[in-house]
Protein 1
Amino acid sequence: MAILAMAATGAAQQVVRVAAAADLQPVVPTSAAEYEHATGVHVVASYASSSTLATQILNGAPMDLFLSADFGFAQKVIDGGRAEDAAPVKYATGRLVLWARKDSPVLGGRPLTLEILSSPALHRLAIANAEHAPYGRAAMASLTTMHLADAVKAKLVVAENIAQAAQFADSGNADAALISLTLASSDQLRKDGSFVAMPEGSYSAIVQGAVVIRGAESAKSARAFLNYLLSPAVQRELQAMGLGRP
């Protein structure tokens, strides 16, 4: 990989602070470790909903790179004058899935299908807060398109972000959850449960956008890490972990 040529003696002390959307929790650590091995630059990630991270950055949080789960919150950082970029940089597309534990009562020992969304056996469905998390917004759009929003309204368990929504379902505090393919593809959730994709036409494309923070202490290194994420080899790795092409 071309990035290997970037390793340099002075890079060992560099740190890139990344504000990463919650769907990236299973993704960024692998890429960050590989990048540090290749360059000596240490990548430190903080995870939350895209809305929460955007607000923190606009309030002056010391971040170098923002990896949002959509274009909207990355654009908000640009509009607030906190980004070097004139437009968000597309780095991936997200996919929405329905996930449930293998022993979830709603399954009754049967394979997971989308039909459980209209089943009387479904009592609690975890989703991310649509006001704060792009995947929560996609979840509500999908349920609305499928004419299920009214039927499940009283059953919704609203989490701050999709990582928390996944935790609700994995801990048994919800029967199922609408989460990202990245989280559903993690080792833990693959072991504990199964997932099915929500119909892609039922929600708007989740185009994930990034911006380098204006005046960041490690802006140059942040740009280099973003370019690394966009490289063909890393893009193939991201796709294996549940993200689509940008």
Note: The beta strands are 15-21, 42-48, 65-67, 89-94, 96-101, 125-128, 156-159, 176-180, 193-197, 206-212.
Protein 2
Amino acid sequence: MKMVDVGDKPKTERVAVAAGAVRMSAAALRVLRTGRAEKGDVLAAARIAGIMAAKRTPELIPLCHPVALSSVEVTLTLRRAHVEVRAEVKTVDRTGVEMEALAAVSAASLTVYDMLKSVDRTMVIDAVQLVHKRGGRSGDYTRA
């Protein structure tokens, strides 16, 4: 194993967007919509967890390069039977930020689960995936 050498690559603007979902019962969604979770503001805590995870990705994923992040935006949208979690991460650096975006979605989703597990232990974290990436040698990618 080794960390890939990116020393010769130019610094360029790079963007990655990841998404996922936390599927839950109607009762858990009701608690979320009414803001009555015992632990407090679920959506705010999940956004902060996602941002923190993006910033600390090299500590979580072996051989992942530390990247100077320009911005991290985590959004959570309430749907009929789930919460949609989305993260957009930007940098100007020598390597991409796909792992940071995926880590942000994962941590935000886990936080939603943690804060609502007293209401619904059957929640499922689902479809965590890269949606889009821009920049770098491999070019752009958008999930079909």
Note: Residues 12-142 form a domain with the Alpha-Beta Plaits fold (CATH 3.30.70.640).
Protein 3
Amino acid sequence: MTETITGLRAKSLNQLAGYVLGAVYLAVGAVGFAVTGGLGLAESPGQHLLFFELNPLHNVVHLGVGALLGGAAIAGARASRTVNALVGGVYLAVGLAGLFLTGSALNILAVNHPDNGLHLGTAALLLALGLSRR
């Protein structure tokens, strides 16, 4: 499979997901800083972007995840598959932990229940792709 996204070639579904999700997470991280101006780095509760909650630390994580997914997609199918599985596993842990941290003083990423759902959905997609041969 070869798909072209603005001149970038995806030879696998893992790369395609890396390009798309990488761009989405980079965009959300950048827009998040416009929304969370004036908040402390790990302040909770955070500010809302649509129905998701963010703080500056959460934005930094989004930028890092986006860069990691996109960079791995550029590096190739094997790197993308590995990074997708790794990020998927981390997002699974974050999504599950968030179920217990929402509303507590330990909630340094200012996650709320819609965030937890999105993190678990992202985990399922990335783990399914990362652990596949595609």
Note: The two ends are 9 Å apart (CA to CA).
Protein 4
Amino acid sequence: MQGSTMQDVIAMFVSLVLGTLVGWERQVGRKPAGLRTHTLVCVGSTLFCLLTNHASRDFGGGNVDPTRIIHGVVTGVGFLGAGSILRQEGFVHGLTTAASVWMVAAIGVAVGVHAYGLAITGTILALVVLEGYRWIERWLSPSGEGAEE
């Protein structure tokens, strides 16, 4: 395997692990988008980013703007996340799930551009927010119940 191909394969597996970590947290909480959704969004985002290098090299030369693919990922995942938001009787549900899907897309993009430190930091911070902030919400809520999902 060439060095570039090996780096791409490593990036895909790093993305798989990081997306799985966030997806696991969502799955345990029985959220609408769980393990598989988060993992696939993360790995898919990484793949799109990795494809920019190949597309630029093989088809575009200097005429391909790799940031356009990242823009497409951000926009597309935004629509995916929007599908998980529900409004019932004046309450909105699914915002945290939508945000976590968007976050794993960003983690996947970071892995795709080989910014592993950012991707790992983003994963850790996402898990801190998803788990740790749950207790803060309960503490701040007058009724003792979480305000979100």
Note: The CA atoms of residues 84 and 94 lie 6 Å apart.
